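User: I'm curious whether this sequence folds into something compact or stays loose and floppy. Could you predict its structure so I can see for myself?
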Amino acid sequence: MRLGFACAWDPRPEGTWSHTPWNLRNALRERIEVVDVGLIYPSAVRTALKAANARRVEGRWVSMWKHSRLARRYGEVSLDRSLRANPCDVVLQIQDLAPVSAPFLILQDLSYDVLFEHMDENGRLVHFPSLDRSALERLRDRQRGMYERASGVVAMSRWFADHLVNVSGVPRERVHVVNPGASAAWTGQEVPAEVRQRRIDGPRRRLLLVGKDFFTKNGPQVLAAVAQLRAEVDPAITLTVVGPAEWPVPGEVPPGVTFLGRQPIDAMAGIYDDHDVFVMPSRFEGFGIALVEALARGLPCVARKAFAMPEIVEHGRNGALVATDDPSELAGAIARLLADDTVFTRTAADAAAVRGHYSWERAADEVVAVARQVVRT
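Assistant: Here's the prediction. I'll summarize afterward.
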């Protein structure tokens, strides 16, 4: 079987979509013949498309140029030309790039139908501020057309698979769930025994939040909950924030909070190991690989009861789930978790299984199985 691999690569391709396509392609290459069929935007084309689609939103320039008609058309022509030169049995597209003549699969974690459900009260998309309703409708209709033509859609979670069936109308038999792997090399390494024992023995007071987009991860709710915990439960409780380039809210960093900013991925294993509970009650989350990374290091998690997060965090077993933006609800969940010896013991015991499942080798095996199924039919 000859698999065409199609991705709209960033200028530094290995970093595209948080390393997901790069790692999956490497793992696939160890199993079957993989042919790169695009998609690379030359620098001049990328610059022109960015400029043509730039919009001023809340005082800053943003450009969702990859969603534009011109970018889509460029991708269609480029992908068609590449496949004519390199015929394949089946094509794996990272996101819905273009309809092609060969059988093709689409790998995704979210859809435009999902975005429609998360507009704010003003009809705006917080996470894609330059896309208005008419543009979103156009993109949704195009995407649904792609789903109709695709041989299948590879969904990263059961939640998204169900959404594809129930909302987007994709037939159940053409939807396949393949969880992603974790990108960091250290995810597969065993947690030091002294770290496991320290969390079990206590005291447990060190909380961690990781994410570039502080507000999408609901950082303000986390800050308010920590302030409440320090005032009402234990003044020694602390929070470390990793991800944003600069402190993301007005004023100084609050008492009990350490801001580390951006950190290299190789440093993150030690950061996870230095903490007791991972807190990330995201308001919007395609999958939540940071939760996987935390659990792989034996760190119980507090997440939101939404999107794919309940598939990763099991309430009462390896963490807790909250349902609202209420800081008091979050503070209560954290307090109960810090006091629950059983959860810490179970999470430490389950870490090896987490590391084993969330590997790109396993993901590649499952993608190959889906591709072979398409070729046989």
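Summary: The chain has two domains: 2-181+359-376, 185-357. The mean pLDDT is 95.
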